[in-house]
Design brief:
This is LapA family protein. InterPro entries: LapA_dom. There is one protein chain. By secondary structure, the protein is mainly α. The chain has one domain. The chain is built from 2 helices and 2 strands. A two-stranded antiparallel ribbon has the order 1-2. The model has no long low-confidence stretch (mean pLDDT about 85).
Length: about 120
């Protein structure tokens, strides 16, 4: 994999160098804040391409981060809902146990009060 990447980088560099050498026509470049009197058109194309790739990668990372945050929020909402249902079930079980315990205590008290001797 690393070998293929190195070969790909060499090919891209060679193509870029050839592009600059073949397109040697000088052009004037007027940017918003500065003015370049003469620049080779091949170099201008490469700089434009590099800037486009960098801006595209940065925007792509930001968009992916937004989607990743959205997926994480959805997952956390599902987890909250699952935990809420689990707490409701635990509360129902505890309430049923408390009712059963109260009934048992009442029954035990009733039996003990009947067994008291009149003396």
């Amino acid at each position: 994999m690393r070998f293929i990447l190195i070969i790909l980088l060499i090919v891209i560099f060679s193509y870029s160098l050839g592009l600059v050498l073949i397109n040697g026509t000088p052009v004037t470049v007027d940017l918003w804040f500065t003015h370049v009197p003469e620049m080779r058109i091949g170099l201008l194309v490469l700089i434009t391409l590099a800037l486009g790739v960098v801006v595209g990668l940065l925007l792509g990372v930001q968009v992916f981060r937004v989607f990743q945050n959205h997926w994480e929020i959805k997952r956390l909402h599902k987890e909250i809902e699952r935990l809420r249902k689990e707490q409701i079930e635990i509360a129902k079980t505890a309430a049923a146990d408390a009712v059963a315990q109260t009934r048992h205590e009442k029954t035990v008290l009733d039996i003990n009060s009947n067994n008291q001797s009149p003396l």
